[in-house]
Amino acid sequence: MSEGSLRRRRPSSPPPAPMPDDDDMLREILLHLPPLPSSLPRASLVCKRWRRLLSDPRFLRRFRAFHHRNPTLLGFFTDDISGLVFTPTLDPPDHIPSARLSLPQPRDELWSILGCRHGLALLLNRTRHEITVWDPVTGDQRRVNLPLGFSNESPKIVCHGGLLCDDGHAGCHYPKSFKVVLLGSDDVRSHVDRQVLASLYDSQTGVWKDVISTSVRGLLSTARPSILVQNSLYWLVLGNHDNGATLEFDLDRQSLAMIDHPVGARVTPRSSFQILRMEDSGLGLAILSDGSIQLWERKANSDSGARWMLQKTIELHMLLSLSYPLEPLCILGYDEDGHVIFLWTVIGVIMIQLKSMQFRNLFKTKFLYTCYPYSNFYTAVEILELKL
Fold first, then answer.
1. 152 pLDDT tier (thresholds 50, 70, 90)
2. Interatomic CA distance for residues 263 and 303, integer angstroms
3. Percent of the chain with pLDDT over 90
4. 46 and 30 Cβ atoms separated by less than 8 Å
5. Is 341 exposed, middle or buried (0-12, 13-18, 19+ CB in 10 A)?
6. What pTM was computed for the model?
7. Peptide bond just before 16 cis, omega within 30 deg
8. How far apart are the C-alpha atoms of 173 and 118, rounded to whole Å?
């Protein structure tokens, strides 16, 4: 028997898997571009083929879904007598012109913003007795009449509200289903116990749920929009002689509850408060007093309850190199997606990322009362407007 016949024949290797066509591979690569306003428009300038792929609505849906947990903080809104003014916080080339997302207010109407979430803004029109759910990127609006009794001409005066989308993230433009929680009060005095009423609207059914209520001692802060933590919305309640409290609306149970603020917190008459969503999706609270921010988190204890625990104290004069006197110094707003807090300081409007402690000085201003951070994916409109 020949030597060659003794050799073991190697099994034939399986044929290689078919390679995806060039467009499929390119789509996967482009999917990992950062979700910044300039990323897709600049990439679409490479060639007509890239623009064709990037402007495909199916790719844009995949792109938003891929990045939905990290929507970009585009800027914030402020309520002005002329309307809603958008202030961008991104540097060029991602800087969005203020006029692109601002909304002028009709002269014969009175309305205000109640907050932003999941790429939408919630507006209250006190003249028409309605709310408007507005998509600043597309300009789409959905108007809903206030529930029975919630108007300036009735005992239940609208004092706040909150918005969330059923899909739980930004970037999927209209039509999309959403929920709105509206709060009202039957007394505007701060020194008495008042009834705060709430009603839930579901866009899928198009009706307001039954009104529920709870007793609150203090004032609901109109300068602080709601904060979404897990499946509850929270609003700040300012106390007269104590540390205040937080009002919770449980979306599952459709119930209201009051949560007292930490007793051991350092609070002065000039303190400002901000509800937070902590990194582990827990309820948090920032208290700014005498140039420092205390970060508290509510944690479960062994008694099947929960208590506030101090997590960190930020000395602003050290972080920001502020010199005394520190005033003006107050909290302006908070971006729950990016865990970013906005401050008005003597050196300007500052945004601080509370995990990394990185900060930016945005601009100087003589006065700013509050701001409403806005996060979303700003891509599709710009791509469709490009001309090669």
1. low
2. 19
3. 52
4. no
5. buried
6. 0.87
7. no
8. 10
